[in-house]
Amino acid sequence: MNLPNKLTVLRVILVPVFMLFLCVPLGLSDTLVRVIAAVLFALTSLTDMLDGKIARKYNMVTDFGKLMDPLADKVMVICVMLTQALQGCVPWAVLGVVLVAAYRDGTGFDVLRRYFAYILQFAPSFDLRALIFPIFT
Description:
The chain has helices spanning about 5-25, 30-55, 65-85, 90-105, 105-120, 125-130. The chain is mainly α. The chain contains 6 helices and no strands. Residues about 130-135 have low confidence and may be disordered.
């Protein structure tokens, strides 16, 4: 696994950690929790910028990166908005708008289709592929 893919995986891992700090009472002051969450969000955003630049500059583009990078981006944005809606910082309608915007151009569905196609290539049974794969193609 190359560096850009590792950064993408790190971003996927940091999203639940970010949500943990904002949604689970940890016994820390509210200000400290928000600062830690902001640092985590900045770190995830930085990995988003770096993985693409490194992959293109050093010709390290992979199928895994093409699949996971947009998926990680969408998961990050949706989870951030979800935590904000859960805390009452933004109306739930804003989360709805973000969901619609994330999938409006079709890339969200394309990412899911490619994800399932990628996973199904490892499926042990042809029957499973025959039942599920046509749904996503």
